[in-house]
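testing teh design pipeline on a random one, pls ignore if ur not involved
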């Protein structure tokens, strides 16, 4: 691996939020969540675009949590996950668009989740 294992807490939260948003986008477009292959591909894209390095354990944990968080968000009305909102989650370069209140809310939820589960070492 070219990149060191360098995902700090905020980078892990951002990757988790990116995967959650990707799941929500897939759900709105296809009616299904991302497949395992697509999650692996999305994780690799995010790591490449952000110069991050994560070991297998980090990637698996974040990928698993991403689906759980996306399903949770779909089931509650706090983050109104409509097609219009989901389309605002990403910039044209496929990065999370933090100008979107929903993207910020997802990121904050992911950060809180990682802190509450004490998975931030």
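output:
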């Amino acid at each position: 691996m070219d990149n060191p294992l360098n995902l700090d807490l905020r980078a892990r939260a951002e990757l988790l939020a990116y995967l959650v948003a990707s799941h929500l986008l897939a759900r709105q477009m296809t009616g299904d969540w991302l497949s395992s292959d697509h999650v692996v591909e999305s994780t690799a894209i995010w790591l490449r675009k952000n110069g991050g390095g994560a070991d297998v354990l980090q990637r698996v944990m974040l990928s698993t949590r991403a689906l759980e968080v996306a399903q949770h968000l779909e089931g509650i009305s706090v983050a109104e996950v409509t097609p219009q909102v989901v389309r605002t989650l990403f910039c044209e370069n496929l990065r999370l668009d933090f100008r979107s209140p929903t993207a910020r809310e997802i990121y904050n939820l992911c950060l809180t989740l990682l802190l509450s589960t004490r998975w931030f070492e």
